[in-house]
C-alpha cells in the first residue's frame, strides 16, 4: 500500500527544530500532520498523511455507540546522533492486531503500520522537542465507522495515527513514588472479556475507579481479579514487585491483563542486569504478607508513559496504609529505570531489533 502526502503549505508548518522554553506536559501538544486510512470491508483506501484536523464521523457510527475502538501508545526518541528512533514499535503493532482480533476489527500488516508511523514522524520530525527527557508520543488507533444502530461489528473502519511532542514524564526527576489504592469495589476485567485488548472501553470503565482512588490520595487503583484473590494490574500499567534477593515478580499474563510492552521488554532485559524474573499469579494476601515481613522491598508499575512508576505505599478503603520498604524509590528500581531509559535514548546499546531509525525520506 502506498501513502499519499497531502501536506500543509511549507509556510504553515514547522520548519525549524522545536525548542520549547518550558517543560512540556505529557500528551497535550500535536504536530502538523496525521496519518489516516479507511477500510470498506474489503480493502484499505484513502491512505494518506494530511494536516492535523477535525474529522467527520456519522452520528450513528458504531464506535460512538458500542465502543468498537482500540488504541496504542508508543514512543520515539532522539539519540546523540540527532536522529529519531522508534522503540519496539513492532510489538505495539502486533498488540494492535491482537486487540483488533478481540474486537472483531480488521488487522493491519505490522510492517505497514511501522512504515506509516515512520513516514508521519519523518514529515513532522521538526516537532521533536529538543528538551532533556523529551519524546514523541505515538498514538495509533482504529474505530468502527458504519452508520448503524444495530449491535454488530462495523463494516467500515478508520485507522489513524497522531503524534504528541511530550516532555519528561517526571519533570522534577525520578524522585517521588506514588500511592495505589487496594480495593474490592472495582474490577478492571473478567475472564472471557476484553481485558487483554487495548480497547477504548476498558479505559472509559477505569475513570470512575481513578476518581475514587484520588479520594484516598492515590494515583490509581491496584486492580484485583473478579474474586478479589489475585493482583492483576494497576490502572494504566502492569504491576511488579521486587524481593530482597533481587527477584522481580510480574503477575502472569491472563486474558484479564493487558500485556505491557514495557513488561515484555523488562522480562527480556532484567536478567542481563542481574535480576531474576518470575511471572506467576500473585495472591493479594501473599503480597501483603511479603511487604509486612520485609521480604518485598520495592514495588511499582511498568508502562509506556512513565516506563517505571515506583510505589511507596498502598492504601486501603479503611484508611490503613501499607508502606513498601522505607516508602522511597528503591535502588533496584532506580537501576532498572536508568538501564531502560538509557537504551531508549541511545546512551546504551539496545538489544537487536528494539530500536528503528526513522529514515529521512520526505522531501516536500
UniProtKB/TrEMBL annotation:
Matching Pfam families: Aminotran_4 (PF01063)
Domain of life: Bacteria
GO terms classed as biological process: isoleucine biosynthetic process; L-leucine biosynthetic process; L-valine biosynthetic process
Sequence positions bearing N6-(pyridoxal phosphate)lysine: 198
Keywords for this protein: Amino-acid biosynthesis, Aminotransferase, Branched-chain amino acid biosynthesis, Pyridoxal phosphate, Transferase
Catalysed reactions listed for this entry: L-leucine + 2-oxoglutarate = 4-methyl-2-oxopentanoate + L-glutamate; L-isoleucine + 2-oxoglutarate = (S)-3-methyl-2-oxopentanoate + L-glutamate; L-valine + 2-oxoglutarate = 3-methyl-2-oxobutanoate + L-glutamate
Matches recorded under InterPro entries: Aminotrans_IV (IPR001544), Aminotransferase-like (IPR036038), B_amino_transII (IPR005786), BCAT-like_C (IPR043132), BCAT-like_N (IPR043131), BCAT_family (IPR033939)
Catalytic activity, EC: 2.6.1.42
Cofactor(s) recorded in Swiss-Prot or TrEMBL: pyridoxal 5'-phosphate
Pathway linked to the protein: Amino-acid biosynthesis; L-leucine biosynthesis; L-leucine from 3-methyl-2-oxobutanoate: step 4/4; Amino-acid biosynthesis; L-isoleucine biosynthesis; L-isoleucine from 2-oxobutanoate: step 4/4; Amino-acid biosynthesis; L-valine biosynthesis; L-valine from pyruvate: step 4/4
A single MF term (Gene Ontology): L-leucine-2-oxoglutarate transaminase activity
Function: Acts on leucine, isoleucine and valine.
Family to which this protein belongs: Belongs to the class-IV pyridoxal-phosphate-dependent aminotransferase family.
Protein name (Swiss-Prot/TrEMBL): branched-chain-amino-acid transaminase
Species name: Calditerrivibrio nitroreducens (strain DSM 19672 / NBRC 101217 / Yu37-1)
